[in-house]
Amino acid sequence: MSDFEPDTRLVNDSYPVTELPLCQLRLMDDARFPWLVLIPRRLNVSEVFELETSAQQQLWREATAVGKAMLNALSGDKLNIASLGNVVAQLHVHVIVRHRQDAAWPAPVWGHGQAEAYNLDRLADMRARILAEVEGLELTPPAG
């Protein structure tokens, strides 16, 4: 969709990584957690049920495939996938790899302490790692 723009709060709090078939994939600017956000490129959508059925399925396909790849690549203990939208209404899905020793474990990452911004080297490394993991994923709907 050519008119699609992510909410400015998502833009200000994250870095673009790549475009998936449905979603823009972004990395949250908090180096304490491997925290991705998928934003479906759809206008005026705030709830999953507002997407057409095929887009709902694609959103889940992208979130779970990216999450599983990152969980394995980062040797995570748990994968959190959530869509809240209480602060930013635009539909977006958080995909967070959790480790038992992370700063917020076992509580949710939201509102826990102060975010630690990525420095340029660490940001470049994390973006490259995410791209390497996402590159080989089958993210298109199955035929038929």
UniProtKB/TrEMBL annotation:
GO molecular function: hydrolase activity
Name by which UniProt lists this protein: Diadenosine tetraphosphate (Ap4A) hydrolase
Source domain of life: Bacteria
InterPro entries, per database record: HIT-like (IPR011146), HIT-like_sf (IPR036265), HIT_Hint (IPR026026)
Pfam families assigned to the protein according to its UniProt record, in alphabetical order: HIT (PF01230)
Domain HIT: residue ranges: 36-105
Keywords, sorted A to Z: Hydrolase
SUPFAM superfamilies (UniProt xref): HIT-like (SSF54197)
